[in-house]
User: What shape does this take?
Amino acid sequence: MKHQDRLLAIPLFSKFNKHELEHVHGISTELRVKAGQVLMTEGNVGHEMVVVLEGELEVRRGGEHVADIGPGGFAGEMALLAHRPRNSSVVAKTDGVILHIDGRGFAALLEDVPQLAVRMLPIVATRAADD
Assistant: This one.
């Protein structure tokens, strides 16, 4: 599957045009993760977010299971948007592939594609309410 087709399959990016998809491709890196690999640690300052392409991630708060995130889901955006320490840890539940987006790239993407924030808002609002 071509990279752009793969991005279009992700709900967050499904309505992006070619230019916007190229922007995402330019600021992101596909990474393979192993089951048990810690991707984010509760309390640490966050400088990146991830989007799940394959596999599953587990969200933990205070060591307790909070949620699972599968393909198309994302994590880490709260720390980027709020500029505060992470409220949860994220661990790869299975082997998989993630799309890694650093904070600077995320800010540039929001500037270029402001409607992305609108697409993220319902999920971000729910997560903020759960804090």
Summary: The chain has one domain: 3-130. The CA atoms of residues 102 and 117 lie 16 Å apart.
